[in-house]
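Tutorial handout. Part one gives the primary structure; part two gives the three-dimensional structure as tokens.
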Amino acid sequence: MARVARKVRDKTLLALIGRYLRAGVMVEGVVQAPEWGTPQGSPLSPLLANILLDDLDQELERRGHRFTRYVDDVVILVKSAQAGRRVMASVTRYLSQVLRLKVNSQKSRVRRIERLEYLGFTFQGIRIVWSERAFQDLKYRLRGLTSRRWRVSMEYRLKRISLYLRGWMGYFGISQLYGPIPELDGWLRRRIRMCYWKQWRRPRTRIGNLLKLGTPRRHAFSTGLSRKGYWRLSRSLATQTGMTNEWLAQEGLLSIRDLWMNAQGYGEKSITSSSR
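Part two.
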């Protein structure tokens, strides 16, 4: 609070922040008074962290270090592992003795830049790419949004997918890794076709919809009467000639490739890719 008072002069606001910090947290239905720190995940926590760690920024600048900090995640760049161990030890002392903060020893380490994961990104030479964990989280969320067990309308499902993809690409779109995007697009379209196939349910409905979408009569009947699984039929000739990529786009399915290209600033510039 003493450091907050350096930036904030309003006594009413200072009193409000103090009350907020002493308000306590709910743990399994019981209110517990915190002895130090801010409640985990609270909206006030990042603001107070930036106020407090401004001292760390000034100290690192005074020492001539190159670094980046986002709230309480800090990366300091040095030329060797030996220098890294020395700097980590001195910065840890500064944080614990001067700022009186606890340093997470499990997350604090010295490593090469190629092995660093920072805010969901990793580095490959001069390229920044999303981390494998971030990419798997994306697929996990999309798998949930395209689950056959989620009984919602296709309009609502596609809207939720669009919102999630725009948000995800709005953050991770700076990644310069293009390789997995076409395959991911094809995988997502296949799952959407599977959802439509499940929603249509009856053979008569499936055959009728495929015929309306332009599927050849023979393929529409053979696929519509098939007892094969949803996932397998979602890649059949009948479902792909009926539920084309263009049709799915008209229904509201966004292209991950197009979102990435816009984020990269390519606009209408084409990138050769395979599509399913």
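Part three, for discussion. The chain is about 55% helix and 10% strand. Residues 269-276 have pLDDT under 50 and may be disordered.
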